[in-house]
Amino acid sequence: MDEKSITVEQLVKKFNLNILTGEKELDRKITQAKAHRPGLEFVGYFDFFPMNRVQILGRKEITYLHKLSDAERKKRIGNIVNYHPPCFIVTDDQTDLTYLNKYCEEENIPLLVTKESTASFIAKLDVYMAKSLAEEKIMHGVCVNVSGIGILLRGKSGVGKSETAHTLIGKGHRLVADDMVVLKKLGPQTLLGTHNENNKEFLALRSIGLMNVVRLYGRNAFQEETRIALDIELTKWEDKKLYNELELEPKYSEYMGVKVPYIEIQLQPGRDVAGLIEAAANNWYLNQQGYSAMEEFKERLQED
């Protein structure tokens, strides 16, 4: 699988960056998510220099460079530009960067400027790059946010996933993606669910057709993304199958190495599936707070 990347041009458009030099080099690829502020590198220590990362120059770095002599400044900057990082971004709309512009132009490295403060910009940049470069997987299903809890709804085609999502929307919850769900791994325990842009805000219901939930129900009916907390599979009821949830051990699904609690909900005429999903979400939240109804029930049995 090819390594995921974004271009410098995408950063320019996303964050409305001003281009000082390197207009023809905006197709440079960025493959590492976290930005870097060169510090030790300015004094000649390059043993762990992350050369493939975006380099951020804040007030601290630029003030240091201003105080150097021309010869020393050329040496300090030259040491870094020789590694050809994807780009340099100067924060706080700082000026008087003629010397920096010169060295970047000589090495064909984009030099960009933002009005935002260093801390604020790095926080936004790192989040954007982490999501853009994250390992991802496309799933057939529906993704919803129920009371702030992200849920992946799965099941065979026609089982009622979209209809269940529609009922949840009617109860004040939010759609994230219908039919095709993009899962992104943001960390060892963090899985993000989102849409693929084409299906953004759309929900397809059999016999009704395609609908835009924002146009029909308002902005609160849709959410761009959500952290996946539960994986719920909708299955058809089987009369001969034994259903005894109290004896079941917790089950998990695994996506790209991230484990997600798994629940199967069997469909039967008259069952309030949306209500069961709400109950599952609320129960998960209580478990996260350290409460287990099963443990309390066992304790009561032991006391009798």
What would your notes on this structure say?
By secondary structure, this protein is an alpha/beta fold. The chain folds into 2 domains: 6-132, Udp-n-acetylmuramoylalanyl-d-glutamate--2,6- Diaminopimelate Ligase, Chain: A, domain 1, CATH 3.40.1390.20; 134-299, P-loop containing nucleotide triphosphate hydrolases (Rossmann fold). The protein is 31% helix and 29% strand. It has 9 helices and 15 strands. The chain has a 5-stranded mixed beta barrel with strand order 7-8-13-10-9. It has a 4-stranded mixed sheet with strand order 2-6-5-4. The chain has a two-stranded antiparallel sheet with strand order 1-3. Helix 3 (70-81) packs across helix 4. The mean pLDDT is 91.
Task: Give the helix/strand layout.
Blueprint: E1 6-7, H1 8-15, E2 18-21, E3 29-30, E4 55-57, H2 59-66, H3 70-81, E5 88-90, H4 98-106, E6 111-113, H5 118-133, E7 135-146, E8 149-154, H6 161-170, E9 174-187, E10 190-194, E11 202-205, E12 209-212, H7 213-217, E13 225-236, E14 251-255, E15 258-267, H8 273-288, H9 293-303
EC number: 2.7.11.-, 2.7.4.-
Binding site for Mg(2+): 162
Enzyme class: transferase
